[in-house]
Amino acid sequence: MLNTIIDVIKKILVSAFIIYGYNVLVVPLNLNIPINIITILMITIFGIPSLFSFSIILLLVY
């Protein structure tokens, strides 16, 4: 039980760092994804493909 809680917390932290790293890399392109609970949970659940889908949605909307 404790191991699963620790694994979930690790995944959440890694997702937040992935979004932060992505934002650092795409500052010149102005494609920043906000770091909030929805984006972190989406990347935690669906992984890296959700990061790319957020980028595509950002390009289509703006």
Query: First CA to last CA: what distance?
Result: 43 Å
- Gyration radius, in Å: 13 Å
Proportion of beta-strand residues: under 5%
The biggest sheet amounts to: none
Query: Which structural category do the helix and sheet elements fall into?
Result: mainly alpha
Folded structure, characterized:
This protein is mainly alpha-helical and 62 residues long. 77% of the residues lie in helices and 0% in strands. It has helices at residues 2-25, 37-46, 48-61.
Topology (elements, then pairings):
Elements: H1 2-25, H2 37-46, H3 48-61
Helix pairs in contact: 1-2, 2-3
Question: Any key phrases for this structure?
Answer:
62 residues, mainly alpha, 3 helices, elongated
Please outline what is shown here:
The protein is an all-alpha fold and 62 residues long. 77% of the residues lie in helices and 0% in strands.
